[in-house]
Automatic annotation (TrEMBL):
Any one GO molecular-function label of the UniProt entry: ATP hydrolysis activity
Protein name: ABC transporter ATP-binding protein
GO BP of this protein: quaternary ammonium group transport
Pfam entry (one): ABC_tran
Recorded family membership: Belongs to the ABC transporter superfamily.
Keyword Nucleotide-binding: yes
Source taxonomy: Bacteria, Pseudomonadati, Pseudomonadota, Alphaproteobacteria, Hyphomicrobiales
SUPFAM superfamilies: P-loop containing nucleoside triphosphate hydrolases
The ABC transporter domain, residue ranges: 2-236
Superkingdom of origin organism: Bacteria
Originating species: Ancylobacter defluvii
Length: 313
């Protein structure tokens, strides 16, 4: 678990991060979002002490980060940035081995770890191990950046706009890869993004920052359903808030399990946007639903999707 406790950073008279308190439970992906200059990058850098706080503390599993030596901190926290920051004259393997080398791991352990990580991020070790960064696409470089950050098996991964510069298809693939890595490793991840759709897809906890202050935090559904103020409302949704709500609400929450109908069912675990898409493309106003977890069948009607509180009218 990571706890930010009244974290504050000033530059001259300007406050970049202002009394920021936030708890990120272990195994959670937390997205820091908000307008440009809101203090997202500064917060990330305060967590791994690339910059020092003027006030407040960062606790990593109960330990004050200020009490950890820099090498210990680097081992516990992986860091991925948009420009990747791979060393251009080192090959992929050596780039990934940066922190294990620093920690004095034995050669064969490092080699095993490099192959394991390349597999994890979806790059074939035999083809990519010896390439230099300029022989990789932007998306492949970003995958190597993630592998490097995970090399010493840190508890916490900090990612600053990691997929920001990539085309939508590559970005989509890397988001899926990150979700898969998180599911397999259970890492705690804090990611800065400008892209609210990325935050909604990846994070179970979204923190909205403005002027260095935490304006609201909660699940994507919380923020979309109950934005705390006009800033959050405009930021998380604007004219697409209703559509995004469909992306974070599951069919099971709106289906009626008392009256099943026949036909090929839709999975109760999929989100309402998928169900609506099926209704639009097939012209159906009701869909059969199957809830695998409870082995029950039901029905989803169009009116239940449109109703904000889930009641059918
Ligand atoms: N080294 C610095 N010296 C002076 N001011 C700084 C410094 N670093 C950041 N700031 C200021 O702190 C504020 C927060 O910056 P920060 O980079 O954390 O915002 P951000 O939310 O990450 O923005 P963006 O989305 O544009 O990357 C900004 O007003 C910025 O100008």
């Amino acid at each position: 678990m990571i706890v930010l406790d009244r974290l504050t950073k000033r530059y001259g008279n300007a406050v970049s991060v202002d009394q920021l308190s936030l708890t990120v439970p272990t195994g959670t992906i937390c997205a820091l979002v908000g307008a440009s200059g809101g203090g997202k990058t500064t917060t990330l850098r305060l967590i791994n002490r690339l910059i020092e706080a003027d006030e407040g503390r960062v606790l990593i599993d109960g330990t004050d980060a200020a009490s950890l030596a820099p090498v210990a901190l680097r081992r516990r926290i992986g860091y991925v940035i948009q420009s990747v920051g791979l060393f251009p004259h080192w090959n992929v393997a050596r780039n990934i081995a940066t922190v294990p080398d620093l920690l004095g791991w034995k050669r064969d352990r490092i080699d095993r770890r490099i192959d394991e990580l390349l597999d994890l991020v979806g790059l074939d070790p035999a083809s990519y191990r010896h390439r230099r960064p300029h022989e990789l696409s932007g998306g492949q470089q970003q995958r190597v950046g993630v592998a490097r950050a995970l090399a010493a098996d840190p508890d916490l991964l900090l990612m600053d706009e990691p997929f920001g510069a990539l085309d939508p298809v590559t970005r989509d693939g890397l988001q899926a890869a990150l979700l898969d890595i998180q599911a397999r490793t259970g890492k705690t991840i804090v990611i800065v993004t400008h892209d609210i759709d990325e935050a909604i897809r990846l994070a179970s906890l979204v923190a909205v920052l403005d002027g260095g202050k935490l304006i609201q935090h909660g699940s994507p559904h919380d923020l979309l359903a109950r934005p705390a103020n006009a800033f959050v409302e405009a930021f998380v949704g604007g004219p697409r808030r209703g559509l995004r709500l469909l992306q974070v609400t599951r069919v099971r929450e709106r289906a009626d399990f008392s009256e099943p109908i026949g036909g090929t069912p839709i999975d109760a675990d999929v989100t309402l946007d998928i169900a609506l898409e099926r209704m639009v493309t097939t012209g159906a106003h009701r869909l059969p639903v199957y809830d695998r977890a409870a082995d029950r069948r039901g029905t989803l009607v169009l009116a239940a999707i449109a109703s904000p509180d889930g009641r059918q009218t």
